[in-house]
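Subject: for your reference before the review

Hello V.,

The reviewers asked for a structural picture of the protein, and I figured it would be easier to keep everything in one thread rather than splitting it across files. Below is the amino acid sequence we used in the manuscript, unchanged from the supplementary table.
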Amino acid sequence: MGQAVELNQPDHMRSGIISMAGIFLLWGNLAAAKIRPVELTCEYLENPSVVDVPQPRLSWINVADEGERGQEQTAWQVRVAGSRERLDRPDLWDSGKRLSGESVRIRYEGVPLGSRQECWWQVRVWDRDGIVSDWSEPGRWRMGLLEAEDWKAQWIGAPWQGEEPLPRPEGGPDARPEEFGPPAPLLRKEFRVEKKVERAIAYVTGLGYFELYLNGNKVGEDVLVPNQTNYGERPQLTSAPIPLPDDFSGYRIMYLAYDVKEMLHPGKNVIGGILGNGFYNPAKFWAAGYGSPRFLCQLHITWTDSTESVIASDGSWKASRSPILMDMVYYGEIYDAREEQPGWCTHRFDDSEWEPVVLRKAPRGKLVAHTAHPDRVTERLPPVSVTRVDNGHYTVDFGVEISGWVRLNRVEGPAGHRIQIRFNGNEYSGDNTYVCGGNGPQTYAPRFNWFVFSGVEIINWPGDLKPEDLTAEAVNTFIEPSATFETSNPLFNKINSIWQRSQTDNMHGGIASDCPHRERSPYTGDGQVASITVMHNFNARNFYQKWVQDMLDAQIVSTGYVPNGAPWQPGCGGGPAWGAAICIIPWHFYVHYGALDMLENTYARMKGYLGYMQTWVNEEGIMHSQRTGRDGKPLKWFNLGEWVAPGETIPDAMVHTFYLWYCA
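And here is what came back from the structure prediction:
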């Protein structure tokens, strides 16, 4: 990043130029800058709810007036305050005027920030003629829990489950577990609000997935959270099909923060959660589990008298079984509405039959702020056609293939009536079953799995199925298009459109998978090959900032080896081109986005991977990786070159050597 020159004049200099100020006052009032700063971001997020970087990085985009050509920023000034009202007299940082054209990743240099600090900020810029813009619209960010001792909450779980994950099924990739574990746990805790609330922030996570509830309502619009990371240690990795030592560089668990002030009310309140298995407890041939589901929550309530209360997950919470009888990312979801407990997260609910939770072991992963986009429902599609096959049996076409689920709108049937939803593109990751409760119309959608489909088969629908009874909801890690692609050739346009949807279908949990319906694994090779095209089409800054950190975490400390997937799953086959993502993606990121700190943060790790690659280089300079498996023989899935190429496959050593030089 270029050097910024600070122009803060001392008092004795100001007195010498005060008379000049009057001369230029009228001119200054009449002149207006031809550029203005917009789209303020902190850590590549607009108004992030939680940040734990001690010196957050700020960015903005300059927009020129209509008809302006050749405009540029010549200087900037940032001001940061503890509240919006104090921005005119900032108490955290006033950068002064800095002579610089930089507008990306400007590091905060003000008063050291503490845990849960609220920060508001603005920027103004000078154009090529030295004319200053108005201050931008304010942006904000909130600091997270910065020290381990800030966490008072304890990990909790259901008393009917143990610590360990479900066992990996024997019998190969298509093997299924003998059992899928108990229903998803419901968790709840009552507390009181006796004073007027100034602020209320909940810091929360759950493994593998969670939903947070307060007084009967779901908190936030996020789904399938938190993002996928290397949560902790897995001793079984050394005996997996593709064995690796559990000697990774980093282990992380992401937590989210929600402003829940408006959801509280005087008197009794209830906070609660639902837990899903996710990738923490997958029970799949090519995935290794970490443990049973667990939950961590810490609600900070600041009262108007400046005192504070903390409601934290601990042994005083209660647990019960939910209507989600089965939720597995590789096997589907079963929901039985007969098991619903209406009002389970409200103060009027009688929880006398609920059981006390148990305390769970804290995973090894460091708790880090979720400064990354989560998964969201990004599109809703009505049926294109509904075709009756037989009584209660229908096929439904939604027109395009998506990754997501089907929402049932006001479905009604007798108690125990079982509706099956089969997805035409989801052969390997299960189906969805809904069992009617018999107590009137209900709306339902899965919570802890996604499916891939352009159409579905509905079996045993009660009555006539109408188009308005179903909605397809596309789900993926939130990412915004940043470009349009249009040519005179309709086929080219269609190919790019199909590719865009295919890409977003594969984006879940802040990673990009090889396929959204089968392995669902974060292959680094697929990631690096597609990264340029992704950056051409999408604003992928925040996405790759998170995923590259997963790659850094996955690097083996002792050798510099970067696995074929990040976070690592022991079914990810690949070779040197896969680990090369640690060199290739950061470089493309810098070229596209101008973020020098991406290279600064990854350079040592790039060198580490190159060092590993060089251990396979012979005297003639040819690299040919022959990494071995558990039997001491070269294992194909460590040493791939080109993979399923059309026609004759080129030699592995040629591919390995190409990537050696590409990375170097």
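For the response letter, the relevant points are probably these. The helical segments are 11-30, 490-505, 524-537, 541-554, 576-579, 581-593, 596-614, 652-663. Residues 5-141 form a domain with the Immunoglobulin-like fold (CATH 2.60.40.10).

Happy to draft the paragraph if you're swamped.

O.
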